[in-house]
Amino acid sequence: MSDPGSPPPPDPASSSGARVLSAMSASSLDVARHASFVKRSASDRDTIEYVLTEHLRMSGVYWGLTAMDLMGRLDEMDDLDDIIAWVLRCEHPEGGFGASEGHDRHVLYTLSAVQILALCDEMSRLRRDETANFIASLQLPDGSFQGDEWGEVDTRFTYCALSCLKLIDRLDAVDVPAAARFVAGCKNFDGGFGCVPGGESHAGQIFTCVGALKLAGALETTVDADLLGWWLCERQVKAGGLNGRPEKLPDVCYSWWVLSSLSLCDRLAWIDQDALARFILRCQDPQKGGIADRPDDEPDVYHTFFGLAGLSLMGFPGLKKIDPAYALPVETIRRLGLYSDEPDEPSSSE
Ligand SMILES: [Zn+2]
After folding, report:
1. What pLDDT score was predicted for residue 193?
2. Which of 103, 206, 221, 276 is the most exposed, having the fewest neighbouring CB atoms within 10 Å of its CB?
3. 335: CA distance to ligand 1 center in Å?
4. Would you say residue 52 has pLDDT above 70?
5. Cα–ligand 1 centroid distance for 112 (angstroms)
6. What is the whole-number distance in angstroms between the Cα of residue 172 and the centre of ligand 1?
7. Distance in angstroms (rounded) separating the CA atoms of residues 166 and 131
8. Is the predicted pLDDT of residue 280 greater than 90, yes or no?
9. Residue 150's pLDDT band (boundaries 50, 70, 90)?
10. What is the mean pLDDT of residues 191-200?
C-alpha cells in the first residue's frame, strides 16, 4: 500500500470519468424495468419481503419514491395520496415518526418521513414544531444524539437529526456546535469516522459524519479531505465496485456512501467512475428489474435506490441529479431553498 500521506493525484483517466459516463448509453440502464420493480415492491403486500420489512417500511418508501423520482417516473405512482396519508398516520402524537403504523418513533424514520414529504412537495402537512421538539429531545449534553428515547447513541443519528432539522428549517432547535464536536471526536487516524469515539472507520458511517459536518457548517475545519479521500478511493476493487471497509466484497450500496462522501469533500474524480458505473449496471436484474448488491444476487429496493443514486452523482445520462448531503433530488433541495453551493456539474468541469 502506498503512503496514505501522499494521496493520488487525480489521474486523467478517472478525472474525465464524467465525460466517459456521458458517452455511456442511457439505454444501458433499464429504467422501465426498474420502475416496474419499485412499483411492484410497493404494491405487492402478499410477499414475505413485505411482512419482513415492516420494521423499516418508512425508509423503504423513501428509497422507492426517490428512486422513481431520479428516473423521472414519480408520476407513475398512482397511489401517492394514499402513501402520504399512510406516512401521516405513522406520526406520533407528540412529534416524530415510526417505521410503520403503531411503531415507536425513531429519528431514522422521522428523517425518512420528512424526506418523503419534501420529495412529494407536502411539507405543509408536517407538524414542524412537534418534529423539532422530538429531535431536540434526543440530544445529550455531549452533543451526541440518541435514536429514540431508549438510549442508543450513534453518529448516524446525528446526521438524521441535522438533516431533518435543515429540511424543516429548525436547526436552531439543537446545539449544532456541540453536535459537530461530538462527530469530530469520532474521527480516526486514517481520516475516517466511526459510530462512536474509537469506533472503526466504515464507509456508511463516514457518509453520516461527513454529511452531518456539512450540514453543521463544520466540514472544512474538521475533515482532512486528502487523507479521507485516499481512504475512500481505496474502497474501489478490481471489479470496479466499492466496498465499505478493507478486505470486504464490493456492494452497490457503497456506491452511495463512498461517492457522496467523496463528492462532499470535492474528491469525486479520485475513483474510476467508468468502472464503477459498469459494476452497478452489471448488478441490474435483466428479468425482474431492480438492482442487487452484487451481480447475479436478488435485487431489492434499497440497492436499486443506492445504485441509481450513485449513477446520478456521477452524472449518468437520463437521471436527475441527487444532492450528496441530503440524499434527495437537487430540484427538491432547490424548492426548499436549501441549495446554496452548486456541486460540480460534469459539463462545466473542463
Ligand atoms: Zn449493500
Report:
1. 94
2. 221
3. 30
4. no
5. 18
6. 34
7. 12
8. yes
9. confident
10. 91
Across residues 113-127, what is the average pLDDT?
A: 97
Distance between Cα 339 and ligand 1 center (Å):
28
Q: Which of 67, 58, 59 is nearest to 38 (CA)?
A: 67
Backbone Cα Rg of the chain: 19
C-alpha 176 – ligand 1 centre gap (Å) = 30
Q: What is the pTM of this model?
A: 0.91
| Helix, coil or strand: residue 147 | coil
Q: Is the pLDDT at 349 greater than 60, yes or no? A: no
Q: How far apart are CA 214 and CA 208, in angstroms?
A: 10
Distance 142 CA to ligand 1 centre (A): 31
Cell of 300: 431489492
Q: Cα(161) to centroid of ligand 1, in Å?
A: 23
Q: Cell 412537495 appears where?
A: 121
Q: Which helix (H) or strand (E) holds 218?
A: none
Beta carbons within 8 Å of 225's beta carbon, 6+ residues apart: 265, 266, 267
pLDDT, averaged across the chain: 89
Contact present, 298 and 50 (Cβ < 8 Å): no
Of 28, 27, 52, residue with least CA distance to 300: 52
Q: How far is the centre of ligand 1, averaged over its atoms, from the C-alpha of 36 (Å)?
A: 21
Q: Tally DSSP H helices, then E strands, for the chain.
A: 17, 0
Question: 174 is written with which cell numbers?
Answer: 439543537
Task: Kindly give the distance from the C-alpha atom of residue 293 to the centroid of ligand 1, in angstroms, as a whole number.
Answer: 5
- Bridge partners of 163, per DSSP, are none
What is the rounded CA–CA span in Å between residue 236 and residue 219? Answer: 24
Outline where 192-253 has alpha helix (H). Answer: 203-216, 219-222, 225-233
Instruction: Look at the alpha carbons of 262, 264, 266, 269 in this order and tell me if their dihedral is positive or negative.
Output: positive
Domains of the chain, each with CATH number or no CATH? 26-335 (1.50.10.20)
E strand spans, the chain: none
